[in-house]
């Protein structure tokens, strides 16, 4: 057997040491991100399990704003008052979404748990075995009573499938996630910041209803909360969407 030269021995040991260091840093980053999400989860009374460490890390690494794909829409009208944007009227085309129905005690619990399930689907737990890519916003369908005075517990959290996957969406391993095709829709959208809970959502629904010239053109008991930042973010960018009647 040929003797290993000191040079090649150094390189082989050096590369394995570098790999070990990289793995250790990888593990430390996973732990740090998982701990952060777990602490945020506790604030919403949500348990973030250990098996979320890898999807959280993958999503965080791939969450550069320039790599996020925005859901395409056509702007129909912008309504402004004294330079402030009151709302936008938009047209969204027919598209496929990965959807999960949730019914926790609190809205924040439903969106956190629903988002975690969708994260697993996005992060390789699908029939393609690939990272699917993040699209924004992640949306939540909420329902109220006819008087728009209270929300129901059942919500649907949904992820818009990237353009390249629209024709053949990868199959989710999680049987709770359903691929649905939503029809083309006209939406009235108003932006707001901060946490989303039953109180803030009802406030935004009432605010947009008061601003719209013809709120009767929209569905009275079904609304969408569009989230542009993940549920762990402190100062979230959200929108309330009213859906025009078909």
TrEMBL record:
InterPro entries per record: Reg_factor_effector_dom_sf (IPR011256), SOUL_heme-bd (IPR006917)
Residue ranges, compositional bias (Acidic residues): 17-28
Domain of life: Eukaryota
Span list, region Disordered: 1-28
GO molecular function, one term: heme binding
Annotated family: Belongs to the HEBP family.
Protein name: HEBP2 protein
Organism per entry: Irena cyanogastra
Gene: Hebp2_0
């Amino acid at each position: 057997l040929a003797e290993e030269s000191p040079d090649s021995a150094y390189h082989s040991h050096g590369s394995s040491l570098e790999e070990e260091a990289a793995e250790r840093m990888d593990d430390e980053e996973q732990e740090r991100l998982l701990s952060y999400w777990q602490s945020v989860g506790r604030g919403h009374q949500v348990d973030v399990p250990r098996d979320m460490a890898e999807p959280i890390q993958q999503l965080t690494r791939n969450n550069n704003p320039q790599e996020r794909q925005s859901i395409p829409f056509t702007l129909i009208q912008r309504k402004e008052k004294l330079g402030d944007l009151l709302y936008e009227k938009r047209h969204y085309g027919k598209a496929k979404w990965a959807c999960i129905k949730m019914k926790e005690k609190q809205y924040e619990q439903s969106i956190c748990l629903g988002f975690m399930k969708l994260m697993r689907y996005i992060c390789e737990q699908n029939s393609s075995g690939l990272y699917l890519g993040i699209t924004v916003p992640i949306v939540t369908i909420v329902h109220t009573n006819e008087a728009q005075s209270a929300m129901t517990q059942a919500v649907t959290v949904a992820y818009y499938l990237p353009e390249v996957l629209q024709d053949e969406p990868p199959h989710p391993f999680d049987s709770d996630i359903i691929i649905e095709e939503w029809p083309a829709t006209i939406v009235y959208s108003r932006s707001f910041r901060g946490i989303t809970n039953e109180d803030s959502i009802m406030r935004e629904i009432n605010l947009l209803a008061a601003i719209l010239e013809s709120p009767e053109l929209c569905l009275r008991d079904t609304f969408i909360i569009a989230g542009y930042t993940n549920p762990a973010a402190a100062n979230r960018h959200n929108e309330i969407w009213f859906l025009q009647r078909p």
